[in-house]
Amino acid sequence: MYDICIIGAGTVGMNIARELSKYKLNICVLEKESDVSCGCSKGNSGIVHGGYSDKPGTLKAELCIKGNRMYEQLERELHFGYRQTGSFVLAFDDEEIPILKKLYDYGIANGVKGLKIMDAAETKQHEPHLSEAVKASLYCKNAGVASPYEFVIALAENAIANSVTLLLEHEVESIKKTADGFVIGTNKENIETRFLVNAAGLYSDAIAAMAGINDYKITPHRGQYVILDKEQSHLVNSVIFQVPTKLGKGILVTTTYHGNLMIGPNAEEIDDKDDVGTDEKTLQYITDTARKSVPDIDMRKSLKSFAGNRPKSNQPDWIIDGNRVPGMINLVGIDSPGLTSSPAIALKVIDILINNGLELAKKTDFAAERKPIIIKKTNDFKGVIDSPDPNLNIICRCEQVTEAEIIDCLHRGIPVKSVDAVGRRTRASYGRCQSNFCGPRIRRLLARELNLPIEEIPAKGKESSELAQRAKRISLMKM
């Protein structure tokens, strides 16, 4: 029997698992997909929010601030890709300036440091490529960007190194309360556990219903994005927002941690939790709206589009509850700023577990550090294609990924079975060619290392290719 079972290997679930791995506990994580970070945690903006957007007194406001302050230490330990960039919220007319003041007041009440309302001239000093229509802005020093899927992968690898059991392709089908805890029925086996944590994201309402809680409801809100070439990264230094609407924080313009320009997302309520398709009409809307902030975005430099669904609940604030079913903690509706808040959510869950009777004893041998997979290349790096030296053999020329880096990513405790999975860990196939050059080379390397026929190694999925083509079509619109 496990002490704790966590359902969901996204950013919330893996932060909880990693934090709990500091203690003498028997922990498992159940994930229905074949890899970690395949849901909400993969398809999001990667923004580490400053903490001024949410109403003071809410869980979102409290945990966003606490989580934001944990990222620098987590980056030092896990090397997943985070940098503080600052952010601007732009006002384009006099009617929007009071919204900046409201956000400023929220931020002060929430304890945010480094906030300042700037006029147009000062804003343009920081961000010279912004539109001349900008009237004023709210600047937040503490905002930043992270690589969200690399964050989850790093958390998972470190948790596994500290004795957490990760069970992939284990879809939960039933939950039975027992005198000792729970029996969780999956498609592969039954799991017994004393405590149960529901961090299932879009499916957190369905997991809660299996335990007899039927009043939680998740409605997916889809957001579509476009990723552009690194050539466009000079256009912004910070995360650029427009004033929020009732639908959310609106269309942003930012560079990703690895230097690509990214625009999006919109927010659309949909019925299908698994529908992460994009459409040209929405991509055009995102393009036009992003150009309101940064007019010189060149959509001919687009690489791909993608979408992610956010788990919007029927409650105004997040649900983090350990009272409905003894021994079970439900985390429901953890939408934005969930990525930012996830380290602090983990600490809150541990407090609830303690209040529910979990006794904790710290390990003396907890290993906090996880070495990076991606090796930053210096000017004297002499990598070449087809070098006999794995440390110099370039597999992905766009992102300068070596054979040694890919081999490394295969041996860190999580099965890596596809080109996509390699890309999330190394960025191989994420450059300009979008796997046209490196995809076959990655497949051959995976087949060799995993001792499998090459036809059993999937390349990039059909859906990904279609999204890339849609992005290319949109790039030819309104240039």
Assigned CATH superfamily of the largest domain: FAD/NAD(P)-binding domain
CATH topology of the largest domain: FAD/NAD(P)-binding domain
Principal-axis shape: globular
Biggest β-sheet: count, sense, barrel? 8 strands, mixed
Q: Compute the number of helices.
A: 13
Poorly predicted spans:
461-479
Can you offer a commentary on this structure?
The chain is α+β, with helices and mostly antiparallel strands. It folds into three domains: 2-41 and 149-217 and 315-355, FAD/NAD(P)-binding domain (3-Layer(bba) Sandwich), CATH 3.50.50.60; 87-141 and 220-313, D-Amino Acid Oxidase, Chain A, domain 2, CATH 3.30.9.10; 394-475, no CATH class. The protein is 30% helix and 22% strand. The chain has helices at residues 11-20, 59-68, 71-78, 97-110, 120-126, 148-161, 204-210, 280-293, 338-355, 403-409, 419-426, 438-450, 462-475; strands spanning 2-7, 27-30, 47-48, 82-84, 87-91, 115-119, 136-140, 144-146, 165-167, 172-177, 182-186, 190-198, 218-228, 239-242, 252-255, 261-264, 268-269, 302-313, 319-321, 328-332, 394-396, 401-402. Strands 1, 2, 9, 10, 11, 12, 19 and 20 form an eight-stranded mixed β-sheet that branches. α1 (11-20) packs parallel to α6 (148-161), α1 (11-20) packs across α9 and α2 packs across α9. It is globular and about 65 Å long. The protein starts with a strand and ends with a helix.
